[in-house]
Amino acid sequence: MKKNNSSTKELTKQEAFVKAHRHYHHRISFYRIFIFALFLTIWEVCANTGIIDTFFFSSPSRVVLCFIELVTEKALFMHIGITLFETFLSFFLVFIIGLGAATMLWYSAGISEIAEPYLVVLNSLPKSALAPLFIVWLGTGTPTIIVAGISVALFGSIISLYTGFKQVDPEKITLIYTLGGTKKDAFRKVVLPGSIPTLLSTMKVNIGLALVGVIIGEFLAARRGLGYLIIYGSQVFQMHMVITSIILLCIIAMGLYQLIQWTEHYYKKKV
Amino acid sequence: MPKPLLELKDISYSYHSLLAETPALSHVSFHINPGEFVAIVGPSGCGKSTLLSIVAGLLAPEEGTISFQNPDGSLHYPKIGYMLQRDHLFEWRTVYQNAVLGLEIKKQLTPENIENVLKLMKDYDLYKFKDKKPSELSGGMKQRAALIRTLALNPTLLLLDEPFSALDYQTRLTVSADICQIIRKSGKTALLITHDLSEAISLADRVIILSHRPATVKFEVPIHLSLPEDSSLAPRNAPEFQYYFNLLWEALSDEKK
Questions:
Q1: Parent domain of B192
Q2: pTM, whole model, 2 decimals?
């Protein structure tokens, strides 16, 4: 009887811990949603009482109306689809080209030393400055936008992947050599599998940067996509359209980040 | 007198930088007979690891020659197994996948070789952990897994670069005796590098003392311990142990002056 008692007591301690933990996280979630709701309420109230001018600042209810209007009259989902497609394609190409380039730099110390100043300059160069060139070279349309998306994310991702590859314990590489392996084996058996966390964190940054690049591209060289809607809306002074598109971009950015987060989670579970 | 498996003659090696040349080894000569277990002891930083890298063929000596005489009479480089200071088991592979890494690299994943690895794992109590991650193993088990990874390629000569230095003292005593026994049973020739005198005396057939940098062979002594019992601590209790310890201690401390 006594034994039973003590075990229930222990259980409650564990339960209390779990409860406290959950409580903490519920509170975090609550405040996150609370701040969001508060912001929307203040915005709506200010707009309706005339403290801010809805012509410039819109309001949540007008955004919803505008959203419905865009869906029915301007094929909003087509624009979202285009932006997403361009972002994914840029991201995918950045991933392939970045991985390939970083691999090459890892293989050859000479090439990496030669390339270093170029990478540093290209990485710090504001890529939006290049966009007009891309338009002249590639015309207006999808290729320009994809190239803009790639240009924003590529150089940073090469640098961070290469740095990640270099940080692999040199003794682990020696191990491959002691087992009779070549440099190729060292890359395939140690460097690449050892760099998967770096790879995932680079992807997390890249998906966001690809979206940035695609929007820059759409500002300048598109007739479709959310970037186009923003520019078009500002030109015709339709601030509802601009703000609706920006909010959609927020949601997209969040979704894309979450997608990589899930991939990372899945990978960690597997390992 | 059997032909030595490995013979080093006047090996010298220096590290170069733009500012200076740092000699690491200077005219090192010694040999190892087939089946022998030789320990090399030297002050830390004297170039022991450099020497091992040269024997393993990872570095080319600047001067001197290394010659091999394989058991079958051939003169080419024998199969060498190299055990590093830390186990370096890969966390993204299971214990078994780590053990067959060498076979995978050498493209020798034949049924016999796999059978051999599994047998080694059974012999050394790792079989039931074969699908676990390395982080779930104890320090001693990790070291045994690393040894199986090395033995899987069936090397003629084993090089051990302070393979026990990362273990805590107690584990170190049992694991070193354990691993030494595994090596002796398999009839391999082994070259152990250590800075621990008692480890060298208790494990090796012959101890070579190296001098300070640039290292050269300072002293060499064959070890004969009369072992009354077969336990991991027995060599350390042998009556001759103290004698060898003092002898080698003198040789090493001479060097320090």
A1: 1-78+157-232
A2: 0.83
Contact A180 B102 (CB under 8 A): yes
pLDDT-derived band at A1 (thresholds 50, 70, 90) equals: very low
* Residue B94 sits in the same domain as residue B207: no
Residue-level pLDDT at A75 = 87
The per-residue pLDDT for A2 is: 46
Same domain for B146 and B26: no
Q: Phi/psi zone of residue B20: left (φ > 0), alpha (ψ -120 to 50 degrees), beta?
A: beta
- Inter-chain residue contact B104 with A189, CB threshold 8 Å: yes
Q: Where is the domain boundary, B124, B139, B155? A: B155
Closest partner residue to A193 (CB to CB) among B58, B81, B92 is B92
Which of A177, A178, A183, A191 to probe by mutation at the B interface, max B CB count within 10 Å? A178
**Is B105 at the interface with chain A, CB within 8 A?**
yes
B36 sits in the region (left: phi over 0; alpha: psi -120 to 50; else beta) called beta
Q: Is residue B94 part of a domain?
A: yes
pLDDT in tens, A40-72: 999 999 999 989 898 888 999 999 999 999 998
Same domain membership, residue B73 and residue B1: yes
Compare A263 and B3 and report the one with higher pLDDT.
A263
Which range (A93-97, B28-32, B61-65, B250-254) has the least confidence? B250-254
Nearest to A189 among B81, B82, B101 (CB): B101
Token digits of residue B108: 């020798």
Q: Which amino acid is at A100?
A: G
Please check whether residues B62 and B2 belong to one and the same domain.
yes
- Judged against a pLDDT cut of 60, whether residue B257 lies above it is answered with no
d(CA B60, CA B54): 6
Domain annotation covers residue B102: yes
Residues B71, B164 share a domain: yes
Closest CA to A175 of B228, B187, B163: B163
Q: Which residues on chain B are in Cβ contact (under 8 Å) with A271?
A: 91-92, 133
Same domain assignment for residues B98 and B210: no
Closest-approach residue (CA) in chain A for B160:
A178
**A with B: how many residue pairs have Cβ under 8 Å apart?**
47
Q: How many domains does chain B have?
A: 2
Domain contains B250: no
The C-alpha atoms of residue B141 and residue B126 are separated, in whole angstroms, by 7
